[in-house]
Amino acid sequence: MSASSDRGRFKFIGHALDGSGPFRPSVTYDAYNKPSNVSYSYLIRYPRESDEKYARRCELAFFASPLARVTTQFVSHIAAKHTSRETSNALLQTMMNNVDGKDNSVSVFMQQFMVQAKARGSALMLVDMPSAMPSNLRDQIANRIMPYWNYISPESVNDFQIGDDGKFDFVSFNGEFIKENGEKVQCVWRFDRESWIARDDQDSILSSGEHPLGECPVIIFAESGNYPCFGQFAPIADLSKRLFNLDSELDEILRAQTFSLLTLAVPENSSDKEKLQAAKTAGETIGTNNLLIHTGQAPGFIAPPDGPASIYLERIQDIRNQISEIGLDVTQINQQESGIAMQMRFHTINSELAKFSQLMEDFERRAWDLTAKWLKLNDAPIIEWPRDFNIADTQGELEILRSMQETAMPNPVLVEQKKRIVETQFGNLDIDQQQELISVLDQELSATDG
Fold this sequence. Notes:
The chain is an alpha+beta fold. 46% of the residues lie in helices and 16% in strands.
């Protein structure tokens, strides 16, 4: 099965997430200060737009990556919760503190992985093992000779085949190979259920070997369905491209229409020669430090209409609202919504967070199972990702408490509502700290009952 049909889509989403590639076009100029080359850009050129104007638009274009904003915000809700990872094995404990060989802990690595996976809907990870084996455990830990976790972007995949068990029969992807002298060369890696091989751009073998895993060491994350799949946030990349163009087009409108046009009144019976002379006199005398002397009616200014710019601003806001809607951005809630509508919105984000967290737990468990196979261990770490998310409108919950107090609700009911506010407002604290706050409320209830 060929992966080429999906590579372009994944690459586009990656550009929208990172704000790179055609979202950051570059312009070069010749000796006469004329644009000589404009890199490929996601800005759509007007049918009769000159090279100079298009180059200017590309040079002034800006992109703030809405996809990165909503994805990071989504992931932050999960990252703020505690993920439990327990193991008594010294090797696995060492790996948890440096899981990728770059001094990134497993928590940091998984947070970065989540951003990439949520934006695209698919992501891959290679669990690889160094070829050199130490003579004892102390050297193995000291020199970190243990598996590495490496993120692989779906757009780098050239070809793959998936078996009936949902795992790769084989997968090949573009990457780097480090030679013995430290030189890095571009290559194509291919892993299957028994072996691996790296080839350079001349199709020469750089390195190859076999592994004892019995499965491909590249594992799959897919948000829904089978790999490859595009996730819930993928349409934001398309809206980002439209927003990128709207912002640029609005800039052009403002540049062309913001400056008012000077008008100079002349007598109705003036000849063309007299009109030209008046215009020449005004043009020569007007400046930031000059005055225009006139008789009769004063010169005026005609301001262009703001209609086109207003329409663009409305359209830009509409695109931003769509992005916030797709991105489950609870900070952009419309206060005109009913209480039930707001509750449903918060229920949706909590449900999506729990679902994604469960997918990540399953994915990490598979990564640790492969790691244990590499190390010939019988037990992998016991991991547990958060399931309970209490993203809610704290202000709304306080209003509910106030209404309960005004209607003289029983104290046990008020305490339960206070507990909900504590869980909502202080959800970023660990369990022990939350329980400490809740125990104060329980003591208050006991004192009242007594």
